[in-house]
Description:
Strand content: 15-25%
Number of strands: 10
Structural class: alpha+beta
CATH topology of the domain at 6-74: Arc Repressor Mutant, subunit A
Amino acid sequence: MAGHSKWANIQHRKGRQDAKRGAVFTKLIKEITVAAKMGGADANSNPRLRLAIDKAKGVSVPKDNIENAIKRGTGQLEGVVYEEARYEGYGIGGAAVMVDCLTDNKTRTVADVRHAFSKYGGNMGTDGSVAFQFKHCGTLVFAPGTNEDALMEASLEAGAEDVVSNEDGSIEVSTGPWEFTQVKEALEAAGFKAEFGEVTMKPQNDTVLTGDDALRMQKLLDALDSLDDVQEVYTSAVIED
């Protein structure tokens, strides 16, 4: 790992997500609707839906909202039809940025995303321009001081792909995207509760930004994330205070 603090960066991201909980509700409901539409209403046979429901429960989305979102996805209730769209580009210092959207109007969405990139010092790229720099996977981060040997044994037994110890003492467990929930539950049953966990597009290399560059990059990421049609923003940027 590079010299920057992985743990501090994770805590920073978690704090920002907690602060945006209202917007997170809306995004999760859209994801549940699309997941049910694409893979059916049975979460046991639809890993994308199971993951979306798990995330929704994690931030206390009401049960009725979850059930209605599933019904809209399967056509039992009327609702907006969403399409998936992914846009790629570059931020400050050449940091890779990938933006996943669910939209009912792609023309509007691409214009909004392009405007955010250009206004805050980034550049929108073509399809595939940065996607190769990311890996679709699950990641669970455990606090410094966690028993590494015991966690590694439990993780590999649960079906994790890799366990890495960072310089700051935190430990990161990687999983396949659809194995994330089962690994997380198995580790919790073994007494290991992650401080932070998600299925993400993980950058293969970090772009560390400090000072004004870090502030400018955060403004770009916030602008993209605040767009109504944006579900997730992934970046190789590591923002240091």
